[in-house]
Specification:
Two copies of one chain form a homodimer. In chain A, 43% of the residues lie in helices and 13% in strands. In chain A, the strands form three sheets. In chain A, strands 2-8-7-6-5-3-4 form a seven-stranded mixed β-sheet, with helices on both faces. In chain A, strands 9-10-13-12 form a four-stranded antiparallel β-sheet. A two-stranded parallel ribbon of chain A has the order 1-11. The interface between A and B is large, with 96 and 95 residues. The structure holds pyridoxal-5'-phosphate (2 copies). One pyridoxal-5'-phosphate (PLP) binds next to helix 5 of chain B.
Chain lengths: 474, 474
C-alpha cells in the first residue's frame, strides 16, 4: 500500500484475538462432530454481558422498539410508561423519526437528562449541557478527547499516564494516535490500590522522553474491580493539579459497585468538594457508557464525556471538532436516557425494572463468592476480590517448568495457560498480558456478570485443568 | 486549555451553523407569539430526509423493532417476513441480543449480505467480506480510511484532491487530520462534469506544497446531483493509476439516480471492466451509507467501505486499526442489511416496500420539475438539474449592489442572501460557501427528497423573496 500512515504499521493486534479465533474453530469442530471431553466452548473472556447470556432490561427495549416503530404506541402489551417515554422522545425528533442526525442538534430531552443525572449523582454539583458530548460509545468519547489533546513529536510528544493493568483498547488508541503510553503500576498486594508515589515515579521518569499531559484513571478499575477511596482520589487530584495534568476519569463501571462498604464517588464530585483551588481550574474529562453496568447495551453504542474546566476560548473549536466526527446513534442514546433516568417508584415498569437490576446485582455478588470459594482451595492461584466492575482478575503462580515451556514455545506463560485451558477444557478466559502486568506476574480474567450456572461450569473446568497443569509442570 | 492539539484550534466551524441557530431562534420567537409574515420556519438546508418529513420504510423499522424487543416475534401486526428476518439475525447474535459488540466479530449474515449486494450490483465482480469494513456511518468510514493514509509534514504532507463543490464534513475531516485539501473544480457549465484536465492541473499545482496521494470523488455528486458517465469514470481511473493516487469513491447517493438515461455504475465495476492492468493494482475505497437514498436512516448510523487492492501485508494492520476504533451500532447494521437485501417479489412485505420506495422516487422526480419550473421563470437564478442525489443546487447571479452590501457587512453574498431569506420568509437553505464554489459564483442548496407541499411552499416564498431582493439591489 502506497503511503500508509506509518503509525498504522506499528499497531499491535490484540493478544486475545488468536485465542478467540481458536475458540471459534473449536466450536465449529464440535459442531462437525469432533469428539472432545466437553460439549461446548464457554467464553467468559469478554465484557459483553448480553452475549454471555445476561438478558437486556425490558423497559430499555420496550422504549427503543416503540421509538423505532411508533405503531407500537398503540400496543397494550408494551408498558404504558415505556410508550409514554417513547412518545416524548419522538416529539423531540424533527419529523417524528429516530432516523434524524444528532450531531449539531442533540435530542434535548436526552442531553438534559444526562446533565440532571450527573448533578443528582454528585449531590448537586452543577452541570451544563454545554459540556456534555454524547458519542458513539465510550471508546469513541475517549478517542475524541485524545484527538483534541494529543500532539507533538520527540520530547514534546504527549505522554499519557496509564494504569497497568488497563483497558487495552485505550492503549491501542494511544498507539494509533502517536501518543506515548506512560505506564503506572497498580499495587496488587494492596488490592490494586493506586498509589500516588507510583504515579509520581512514572511521571518523572517519562519526562526524559515525552511531555506527560494526561492522566488516565479507571474507577472502578478494570480488570481489577478495585474501587478507589475518596482519600485516594483526593491525592490523585492534588497530584494532577500540581503537575498540570488533564485528568481522564473513566467511570464506565460506576453502576456495578457491590462491595459492602464501598460506594461509587465520581471524580467530579470529589474535585468540587475540594474547593475552588481545584474545582475552578483542574481540567477533567469524565466518561460513562451504556455498554457496561446492568444495562450492558454494548451493541447499541452510546457513551458520553463531560468536559470540566475547559478554557472558554477553546470551546467553539472543541464543538466544531466534535461535529466533524459523527452523530451518535439514536437507539444507543435512548438506552443512555433510560440508564440516567430509569423508571421511578410508582411507575408501571418500576417493579420489573428493579427486579431485573436486582437479579443482575445478586448474580454478580454470588459469582464473586463462587470464584473466591474455588480459588481459596487452589494452590498457585490468588484473587484480590474487588468491590466493583464485572470481572474476577486472578493471579497465577506458575511453576518454573511452565515458564520454561512458554519460553520454548515463544509465548507468554499466561497465554500458554489459557491456550491449554481452551484446548483441554473448552474455556476461553482473558489473558493477563492483554491488560499489562508487572514483569514476572501472570493473570487471567473472567467476566462474572454472567449467568451463575455458566460461572460454576467454568470454575469446575478451570479447577480440574489448573491442578493438572500444576502437576504436569511440577 | 493546556496542550491542545494545535490542529483543533484551526478548525473552521460550519458556515451553515449560524443560519441554523437563527432558524431555531425564529421558531422560538414564533412560538412566543412574535408576529412575522410566515407562521413557521421551513428548513430544507440539511440532508436528513426523515427530519424533513419523509417517512421511514416500514419493513426496516419492523425488523429492527423485533430485533430490539424479541417479544414482537409473536406479534401478528408485524409482517411475517419482517419477523423471520429478525429471527435469523437474532440467531446470529451470541446470547440472542443485539446488545453485543460487533467489532471483532461482525454479524455474519449482515457482513455477507453487503458482499453479495456489491457483487450483484457490479454484475458479478468478486467481493470478499475480508475487504468490507462496517462503520458507524459513512463519515466514520471516511475518517477511518483517511486515518490509515494521512501522514507527513511539509512537502511530504498527504494531499487530497477534493471536488468543489463538495461534502463539507469531509473537508473538515481533512483539516482535523492535518491533510492538505487540494481543490479541483467541477464544471458547472457542463452540468457539473468532472474534467480530467482540471484534476491534472490541480494535482500539478499541489506538488509544490504537498504530496497528493488521495483522489476523492463523489458520484452521484453532492450538492450538484451530477451522475458521472462511464467514459468520465474511465478517464478518472486512468488518471489515478498514472499518478498513483488512492481513489476514494463516495457513492452514498447511489440509490437516488432518477435521470431518464442515467444509471448508477460503481467505480469498482468500471475498474474491473477496464482489465487487469487497472483492476489488479489500483487502490480503491468505495463508500456507502444507510443515511441517504430512500432508506434515509441518518440517526441509526451505519456505513461501509470496501477496500480494493490493499497490499496483503498491510491488511492485518488495517484490521487491528479498525478494531481499535469501535463497533458499529447494531440497529444501523440491520438497516444496512435491509438496504442491501430488501424484500423480494413474492415476499409479504414486497408490495408495501416497493410502494414506499416508489413514492419517494416519484416525489424526487416531481420536485425537481417543480424547482426547474420556478427557476426558469426567475431572472438572476439558474439550475443545472442533475440526474441523481437529493438536492437542487441553484446558482445566483447577484446584482453588484448586493455584492457591495455583503462586503460592507463582512459576509459572503450568498450568506447575506440566505440570511435575508430566512428573516423575511422563514426559509432556511444551504449556503453555497459551505460547499465551496468558484470565486465570484454564488449558490444555494435545497434538499428535494422532501414532501412536495413543503417544496412548493419553499419555492413560493423563495420566488417572492428573490424578486424583492433583486429589486432592492437593482
Ligand atoms: C474501562 C472501559 N472504558 C471504556 C470502555 C468502552 O466502552 P464502550 O463500549 O462504550 O465503547 C470499556 C469497554 O470495555 C471499558 O471497560
Ligand atoms: C457525499 C456524502 N458522503 C458521506 C456522507 C456521510 O454519511 P453518513 O451519515 O453515513 O455518515 C454524506 C452525508 O451527508 C454525504 O452527503
Amino acid at each position: 500500500m502506497r503511503g500508509i500512515n506509518p503509525r498504522v504499521n506499528m499497531i499491535h493486534s490484540s493478544e486475545q484475538q488468536t485465542l478467540i479465533q481458536r475458540a471459534k474453530q473449536i466450536t465449529e469442530e464440535l459442531q462437525q462432530g469432533v469428539k472432545k471431553s466437553y460439549k461446548e466452548v464457554i467464553s467468559v473472556c469478554g465484557d459483553d454481558t448480553h452475549s454471555m447470556g445476561m438478558k437486556p432490561l425490558t423497559f430499555v427495549r420496550q422504549v427503543i422498539a416503540t421509538c423505532i416503530y411508533p405503531e407500537l404506541l398503540q400496543d397494550d402489551t408494551i408498558a404504558t410508561d415505556a410508550r409514554q417515554r417513547a412518545e416524548r422522545l419522538l416529539k423531540e425528533c424533527e419529523g417524528g423519526s429516530v432516523g434524524k442526525y444528532c450531531s449539531y442538534s442533540p435530542i434535548r430531552g436526552i442531553h438534559h437528562s444526562v446533565c440532571e443525572f450527573i448533578s443528582k449523582r454528585d449531590g448537586g454539583v452543577p452541570c451544563s449541557v454545554e459540556n456534555i458530548y454524547i458519542c458513539c460509545g465510550c471508546q469513541d468519547a475517549l478517542l475524541f478527547v485524545l484527538n483534541l489533546l494529543v500532539h507533538g513529536e520527540g520530547l514534546d510528544q504527549t505522554g499519557v499516564l496509564t494504569p497497568i493493568p488497563s483497558y487495552n483498547a485505550f492503549v491501542m488508541g494511544l498507539e494509533s494516535l502517536g501518543a506515548v503510553m506512560v505506564p503506572y503500576y497498580l499495587c496488587e498486594e494492596e488490592g490494586w490500590e493506586l498509589r500516588v508515589e507510583d504515579l509520581r515515579k512514572a511521571l518523572y521518569t517519562s519526562r526524559s522522553h515525552c511531555s506527560p499531559r494526561i492522566l488516565y484513571v479507571i474507577n472502578p478499575g478494570i480488570p481489577t474491580g478495585h474501587v478507589q477511596s475518596r482519600k485516594s482520589m483526593e491525592e490523585v487530584i492534588r497530584f494532577a493539579a500540581e503537575e498540570k495534568l488533564f485528568l481522564f476519569a473513566d467511570e464506565v463501571h460506576q453502576d456495578t459497585v457491590y462491595g459492602e462498604d464501598s460506594q461509587f464517588v465520581s471524580y467530579k464530585k470529589v474535585l468540587f468538594e475540594m474547593g475552588p483551588q481545584y474545582s475552578d481550574s483542574m481540567e477533567l474529562a469524565s466518561f460513562h457508557s451504556v455498554s457496561k453496568g446492568f444495562i450492558g447495551e454494548c451493541g447499541l453504542r452510546c457513551g458520553y464525556v463531560e468536559l470540566v474546566n475547559i478554557d472558554p476560548s477553546v470551546k467553539p473549536f472543541v464543538k466544531a471538532f466534535f461535529n466533524i466526527q459523527r452523530s451518535p446513534p439514536i437507539t444507543g442514546q435512548i438506552a443512555m436516557h433510560i440508564m440516567v433516568d430509569p423508571p421511578k417508584p410508582g411507575d408501571p415498569s418500576y417493579s420489573t425494572f428493579s427486579q431485573e437490576v436486582k437479579f443482575k446485582k445478586d448474580t454478580l455478588v454470588y459469582n464473586v463468592q463462587q470464584v473466591q470459594g474455588i480459588v481459596d482451595t487452589l494452590p498457585g492461584m490468588s484473587f484480590q476480590a474487588g468491590c466493583g466492575g464485572i470481572y474476577a482478575y486472578l493471579r497465577l503462580y506458575l511453576p518454573p517448568k511452565a515458564l520454561q515451556q512458554a519460553k520454548d514455545e515463544g509465548t507468554k506463560p499466561d497465554r500458554l495457560y489459557c491456550m491449554r485451558l481452551l484446548e483441554e477444557e473448552g474455556v476461553c478466559l482473558g489473558v493477563g498480558t492483554e491488560f499489562g502486568q508487572k514483569e514476572g506476574t501472570y493473570h487471567i480474567r473472567m467476566c462474572i456478570l454472567t449467568p451463575t450456572p455458566k460461572v460454576k461450569e467454568v470454575l469446575s473446568r478451570l479447577k480440574s485443568f489448573h491442578l493438572r497443569f500444576l502437576q504436569e509442570f511440577a
